[in-house]
From TrEMBL:
ATP binds at residue 69. Residues 40-297 form the Protein kinase domain. Its cofactor is Mg(2+). GO terms for molecular function: ATP binding; metal ion binding; protein serine/threonine kinase activity. InterPro entries: Kinase-like_dom_sf, Prot_kinase_dom, Protein_kinase_ATP_BS, Ser/Thr_kinase_AS. This is non-specific serine/threonine protein kinase. Belongs to the protein kinase superfamily. Ser/Thr protein kinase family. CDPK subfamily.
């Protein structure tokens, strides 16, 4: 599923040494009045979407590499343009070590250019499947980072609304690379509790209240994190159905289980945290701040390191391979649609 407007299917990524300036507002970008190509040299294409392409670019006179989302204005509906400016506004405000950074925005007569970090390390989940050994402490350390980053967003009254593995990226290829949350195309300010109404997100990760069509807020992100943590520990998603109607039924009811074959090796505290996140009633669901105080997040690292998840890692590798295959198929379908329908193409709602 998607949001109210079409959203580009792109992989945004982070810099190797970047300027610290960022545009102060979507209405008056720092690059206003200047040509993008005057300041940057274009490189290879990193991804394509319904109305944008993401390219690699190097700042002229430096060795600084960036990912640049190039948005074609003529392909934007009024809703799309509002959503884009919301995304810029949100990214300009978010300055956190685990959130992808927007450095600059250029506006030209035909295009917008969003200059962001280039995440050279790829997806977090791909890094995990490359491991030979995997334990509960490693999963816990990732979860702590995610709670801190999303907690920061929520402290700014911003909901991400599309948390999923594809949006958890690594800044570099090093073993100690920073994890960063990316793709704020659906992000929205939450001015008052339960003030959001647009149905958006990705099937499998979307919160029940969004599927029910009722008003919601930042707690919807916590459900999505619950799904991600379930996968990190169990190796497979909590809600699995080929039929999307049945998938949504299970999500609305919070119908999942901890199968003993894979969850017998996982601590009770970890399972308790997941259950506290995959709670259908958002009022009873943990906030990011509450999650960071959960017993599992504070547990002795040595004890968690002894909780070997080798069998679950094997299952994780199978799940990730299926996920990547589906993503590749979607990319081909998207490319074919774009080439055959051109500017009249309206992106399909995401279906993961």
């Amino acid at each position: 599923m998607g949001c109210g407007s079409s959203k580009p299917h792109t992989t945004t990524a982070a810099p190797s040494g970047a300027s610290k300036s960022a545009s102060k507002s979507a209405a008056s970008p720092k690059g206003a009045g200047k040509k993008f190509d005057t300041d940057y040299k274009r490189g290879s294409t990193l991804g394509e979407g319904a109305f944008s392409v993401v390219i690699e670019a190097t700042k002229r006179g430096t060795d600084e590499h960036y990912a640049v989302k190039v948005v074609t204005k003529s392909k934007l509906t009024k809703e799309d343009e509002i959503a884009l400016k919301d995304e810029i506004d949100v990214l300009n405000e978010l300055k956190h070590e685990h959130i992808i950074r927007l450095y600059n925005v250029y506006e030209e007569p035909s295009y917008y250019y969003l200059i962001t970090e280039q995440m050279k390390g790829g997806e977090l989940f791909d890094r995990i499947v490359s491991k030979s050994f995997y334990n509960e402490k490693e999963a816990r350390d990732v979860c702590k980072i995610l709670f801190e980053a999303i907690g920061y967003c929520h402290s700014k009254s911003i909901a991400h609304r599309d948390l999923k593995p594809e949006n958890l990226l690594l800044q570099s290829e090093s073993n100690d690379s920073a994890i960063k949350i990316a793709d704020f195309g659906f992000a929205k300010r939450v001015l008052t509790p339960n003030s959001l109404t647009t149905q958006c997100g990705t099937p499998g990760y979307v919160a029940p209240e969004i599927l029910e069509g009722v008003a919601y807020d930042t707690k919807s992100d916590m459900w999505s994190l619950g799904v991600i943590i379930y996968i990190l520990l169990g190796g497979y998603p909590p809600f699995i159905e080929q039929n999307q109607r049945e998938l949504f039924r299970k999500i609305r009811k919070g119908q999942y289980e901890f199968h003993e074959e894979y969850w017998g090796a996982v601590s009770k505290d970890a399972k308790n945290l997941i259950a506290s996140l995959l709670t259908v009633d958002p009022a009873k669901r943990l906030s990011a701040k509450e999650a960071l105080s959960h017993k599992w997040l504070l547990a002795d690292g040595k004890k968690l390191a002894a909780q070997d998840l080798g069998k679950n890692l094997d299952e994780f590798k199978k799940y990730n391979a299926r996920r990547k295959f589906k993503g590749a198929v979607k990319a081909v379908i998207m490319a074919n649609k774009l080439s055959s329908l051109g500017v009249n193409f309206k992106a399909d709602l995401e279906d993961d």
